Amino acid sequence: MLAAAVLAPTAALAVTDAERVAVYRQFRAAFDAHRYPDALPLAEKLVALTQEQYGANGRELVNPLANLGTTRYRMGDYKDAEEAYLRSVKIAADTGGNGDRLLLRPLQGLGATYYATRQYEDASVTLQRALDLSRNLDGLLNPGQMPILYPLIGSLVNLERHGEADREFQYAVRVAQSAWGSTDARVIRPLDRYAHWLEHMGRYPSARAGYARELSIAEGAGSRAARLVIDPLLGIARSYRLEATNGSDEEAAQYVDPFAQSSVGGSPDRGGRGLNPDGEKALLLALQTIDKMRPVDHELRGRSLMELGDWYLCADQADKSLARYREAWKEFQQAGSTAPLDAPRQLAYRTPASSAARSPLAERDNSDTHSVQVTFTVKHDGHTANVTTSSSDATAAQQKTVLAAVRRARYAPRLLNGEPVDTEGVTLVEKLLSKRPRQP
């Protein structure tokens, strides 16, 4: 009997809920502390225990698989993260249908993984599916959709679906205002993102109006106001500078300038090269605000001085510009990194009329895309020199327009040990559109 008992196969111990809960708590402690290498084996163990208890297709696996995918995502292991998310999505859809709430987390994670690996088409489809599910379950303006909205917007931008991206940017602002009120400080971030998008698209008056709304909210943020007003002040100044140097294809929106002073003629005086002096006022106000902050934020002060240097350079005030750049370099050095001034930065560049960004050829199916890569030197004073075509499939006439645009461009110089220096081998790639000839 003793021999039989020793040799008989032992029955497998059943996994209990308490055991899984204990592993989950260990996993969350490591994950929340950002100790992802420690969290990973715990996430894998939790999946194994859940599968042993409920089977390979059990509905209870959806969340453990999503946790495993998120841990791998945070560690940069996107391939295995995608695999875990896909399995989680399949189990949730098979066991609960396409309207199941359990689908939300793995769909969002899968879309974020596609976005991180630049699979923008797959990302847009997956994230749109997650967004639709979120709105169906929790309402059209629920704030829980915000983490889904921004990678979706990024995918649409990279796919050059600008109209859809603009619509989702506006939707993000509406969601924030509906959830928290139009004057709540939490609205600042979506407003700022939309204003930056408008600025990127060359819609400078609208961008400036967005920054002004952001500034108005920031001013009422109590003890946080001093820090929150800096970014919109810099944005207002930058939109003025870019509008003066690059031009704007947008009709000026109604906008009340917070720095404008009444004048007899009813219009503000213009500084060098058509720069509105209200932009300089915004930058000086930002610096005054930073100087009152304790302790001093050297990185923030460096950014503000850098913007002021950009302003003076575009106003053809080179001496004042270079002095501000030197000050900015010292501030960045105290902050721990001079990276913002370690390479030339484009300040003024008016794209050719045939560029993909400005071309009237709206129907891309009836147009051909060409590219021109230009190599040049950025001088210590911000001008370009030695401008040549390094590669191109465009016509000679198209290349000529790009070369002319680069010669007129203005860059902020690179700083080396706090001094502006020439930088050779700078490149710019311009995409151009041309109408496709009709086939006989």
Instruction: List the strand order in the largest sheet.
Output: 3-2-7
Task: State the helicity in percent bands.
Answer: 55-70%
Sequence stretches where pLDDT stays below 50 over 5 or more residues: 1-13, 252-272
What is the 3D form?
Answer: globular
CATH topology of the largest domain: Serine Threonine Protein Phosphatase 5, Tetratricopeptide repeat
Give me the count of strands. 7
**How far apart are the termini?**
96 Å
CATH superfamily name of the largest domain? Tetratricopeptide repeat domain
Arithmetic mean of pLDDT? 89
- The SSE string, one letter per element, is HHHHHHHHHHHHHHHHEEEHEEEE
Oligomer: single chain
* The first-level CATH class name of the largest domain: Mainly Alpha
Number of helices: 17
The secondary structure category is mainly alpha
